[in-house]
Automatic annotation (TrEMBL):
It comes from Dysosmobacter segnis. This is Prepilin-type N-terminal cleavage/methylation domain-containing protein. It holds the Pfam family N_methyl. It comes from the Bacteria. InterPro entries: N_methyl_site, Pilin-like. The lineage of its organism: Bacteria, Bacillati, Bacillota, Clostridia, Eubacteriales.
């Protein structure tokens, strides 16, 4: 009888190893995510139980009772649910502190559940792994730039720009619209993304009723007047329906006025007139779930060597 001693070839072994590596790379993040969700579920259940205990004690007249819940989660914030609802206290990501919600959940942290005679039950979160200083130069709780800024202006309320294509660029001189937008910013926000020094932003898109998703906010940390026209720059984009992207535009020269009143400025993007042209900026692989994630991606994009020239304009003398 002839024995078959043929084994696997080197190529077959390499293919098997490659397949196993791919499966592991997919499975490990999924497993890690599921474990974190489980830990957060336990934390939420424990805090809700503490909420019920403190609420009951308060109804019985014992308003000085506090319960401390040690957290099991390994990541700051909440990965599995948004908004978080604990006994009717509802809190969304990036919302900031409220009368009933102080701080944020963090690894190795805890939640102190107490009672305030004015505001009711208060949840105070803390953790040794929580960052001591803000990781962003702007107030991350300010995200509603359409609802709380653009839509608050008189010209928008009066329907002056209910047209197919509008553009309000912050670099436009003698604009009748930009001062109103800046006033709405000042009245509703402090240290927001749009209020960062030397940044350039523009609201663009379709102003007609029913076209909310076809409106866009383009933002860059660069002073486009220093960058010049025809230069590619990274931009952070927020759409009217609350989505975030990081993309690239080419700066464009605009003219305001006529004759001796003629002035030029550099807008955040070349002229865009068609809806399909806006869509080119919104690539699925560059979409982000929050303003902070998009900003972090923008900073990473700006660090690309191809933007070395435009980065230099941030530190050049005016």
């Amino acid at each position: 009888m002839k024995l078959n001693r043929k084994g696997f070839t080197l190529m077959e072994m390499l293919i098997v190893i490659a397949i196993v590596a791919v499966l592991i790379s997919v499975a490990v993040p999924v497993l890690s995510s599921q474990l974190e969700r489980s830990r957060e579920a336990v934390d939420l259940a424990n805090v809700r139980a503490a909420y019920a205990q403190v609420s009951t004690e308060a109804l019985l007249g014992k308003t000085d009772v506090t319960v401390t819940v040690n957290l099991k989660q390994k990541q700051a914030g909440w990965q599995s649910v948004d908004p978080v609802n604990i006994g009717g206290i509802v809190h969304s990501k990036n919302e900031g502190e409220t009368d009933n919600w102080k701080g944020d959940a963090a690894p190795e942290g805890n939640c102190v559940v107490s009672y305030d005679e004015i505001h009711g039950v208060v949840l105070t979160w803390s953790g040794t792994a929580a960052p001591g200083e803000p990781s962003h130069p702007f107030d991350t709780t300010h995200t509603q730039f359409f609802d709380n800024v653009l839509y608050k202006t008189d010209f928008w309320k009066n329907g002056e720009v209910k047209q197919y294509n509008f553009e309000f660029d912050s670099r436009c001189p003698d604009s009748s619209y930009i001062p109103q937008i800046k006033e709405a910013l000042k009245g509703n926000m402090t240290n927001s993304l749009l209020q960062q020094e030397n940044c350039t932003w523009a609201f663009l898109g379709d102003g007609r009723d029913g076209y909310t998703a076809d409106r866009y906010l383009f933002w860059t940390s660069l002073d486009t007047n220093k960058v010049g026209a025809g230069v590619k720059i990274p931009v952070l984009i927020q759409t009217g329906d609350g989505k975030y992207y990081v993309s690239e535009t080419t700066t464009g020269e605009r003219t305001k006025g006529n004759g001796t009143q003629k002035k030029t400025y550099i807008a955040v993007s070349e002229q865009i007139t068609e809806k399909k042209d806006y869509k080119k900026f919104l690539k699925a692989e560059a979409q982000y779930s929050s303003l902070t994630e998009a900003y972090d991606a923008y900073v990473k994009a700006l660090a690309d060597p191809k933007y070395e020239g435009v980065r230099a304009t941030q530190t050049s003398a005016p």
